[in-house]
Amino acid sequence: MAVITNKKDKMDSEEFIQLFAEQFDETEASEFKAETSFRELEEWDSMVALMVIAMIDEEYNVKVSGDDIRNSTTVQDLISVVASKK
Amino acid sequence: MSHLNIPNVSVRGLAATVPAMVKDNLTDPLVNDAEKILKNTGIHLRHVAPEHICASDLCEDAAKRLLDALEWTPEEIDCLIFVRQTPDYILPATVTILQEKLGISTSCYAIDISMGCSGYVMGLSNIAALMQSGLFKKGLLLVGDTISRTCSANDKSTYPLFGDAGTATALEYNPEAAEMKFSFGTDGSGKEAIIIKEGGYRHPFNSDSLVEKEIETGISRSGAQLVLDGMDVFSFGINKGPSSVKDLTGFFDIDMAEVDNFVFHQANLFMNEKIRKKLKIEPEKVPYSLGKFGNTSSATIPLTLISERKEALTSSHQRHIGCGFGVGLSWGSFYFETENLVIPEIAYLN
Questions:
Q1: Whole-number Å distance between alpha carbons of B133 and A42
Q2: What pTM value is reported for the model?
Q3: Does A3 touch chain B if contact means CB atoms closer than 8 Å?
Q4: Residue by residue, what is the 3-state secondary structure of B145-203?
Q5: Which of A1, A45, A50 is the best residue to mutate to test the B interface, defined by the most B CB atoms within 10 Å of its own CB?
Q6: Would you list the DSSP string of B289-325?
Q7: Which of A50, A63, A70 lies at the smallest CB-CB distance from B239?
Q8: Does the distance separating the beta carbons of B239 and A57 come in below 8 Å?
């Protein structure tokens, strides 16, 4: 198995929020805060969820599950999940 | 991951049959957000089986036409494998029905393999392993599913994705053959990601099995229908797809630049493109049949070779890497070479 080196060793919340916001086409980036309940956003759907999973995979080399997404309410919850899996 | 290398066996021909009935995701009243689904999944048309067509019927048609095209007789077939998630019966194994319908000798070796997305890799490795010593000279690998028949029409997470298909692959003992190479992996902790819960013996079919329940908005299904956790499967696919191919090429020291075709299980375009980009494979080497047939479960890899690469396969030497990943969870990759394959046209069964 090839070893993929982690691009980021420490979690930077601001950076995560920015990367998270980039997965949305219509929702303004300024709307995203750590406490944003992302699943309540109008644009949130299963496709955005997949893009978030892909972003976390690419940027953090972390594999998040469907339950990880479903059990997260805020962006901060997701940051905690990613941090705990790094 | 585990590995297998198999000498002395060549693929000689491929054939596919799909149901004639077509669903168009852009005009199907059961598909909402059709444009978006097409853009993200790449799935436009799906050939779907009515109730009287089973996966075995599609495979039977493909096998008969392939034997004709190869000018092989059914009596010459020493071993027959049927890979599927959608058998005719709980028992007996459907392969026995295929042996009879195809007129293959009662002396043949015949077995069903219950695998889906990784099924072509598992089936090919099994039949090639059986044939490598040379006592079985000719073999038929039949791989197909009517997975659309397991989906609820009111489940947006499965209904627009799946089509049906049956394929046949003819193999022959050949001491001159380039080695086939395989890599495999299995992780049953992900069994719930793609599952039909009722109808086996853990949760037998019962008086509630046909009752449709709303899981969430846009997703209603019964216990006897297919469950697909899109997020789990996606997360799995974008990890195991690339790592399986890297494991195969790394273990066997295969130069990816010399491979002509990288054929992936056709899950959906968004996921498959992520896998392709992670492996840094140029788009020209990665064929898609998703737009024409959707995700046809175990049949996607041979169907894609036939649908998208027929000309090159029938007229030249080609090197293939394939990768199947999904239900189980199970995944695997293969490498093999072909020379001037026999491939009849895709047929449409009514």
A1: 61
A2: 0.93
A3: no
A4: ECHHHHCCCCECCCCCCECCEEEEEEEEECCCCCCEEEEEEECHHHHHHEEECCCCCCC
A5: A50
A6: -HHHH-B-GGGHHHHHHHHHHHHHHHHSEEEEEEEEE
A7: A63
A8: yes
| Tokens encoding B218 | 């846009």
- The helix (run of H) or strand (run of E) holding residue B330 is strand B330-339
Q: Which domains does chain A have, with CATH numbers?
A: 15-25+35-85 (1.10.1200)
Summarize pLDDT for B232-250 with one digit per residue, the tens. 999 999 999 999 999 999 9
Look at residue B187 in the predicted model and tell me its pLDDT.
Answer: 96
Coil/strand/helix, residue A46: helix
The β-bridge partners of B3 are B183
Q: Do A50 and B271 touch (CB under 8 A)?
A: yes
Dump pLDDT digits (tens) for A15-34: 999 999 999 988 988 999 99
Distance from chain centroid for Cα A6: 16
- What is the predicted ipTM? 0.79
CB B146 within 8 A of CB B164: yes
The count of CB pairs under 8 A between chains A and B is 48
User: Is A4 a residue whose pLDDT tops 80?
Assistant: no
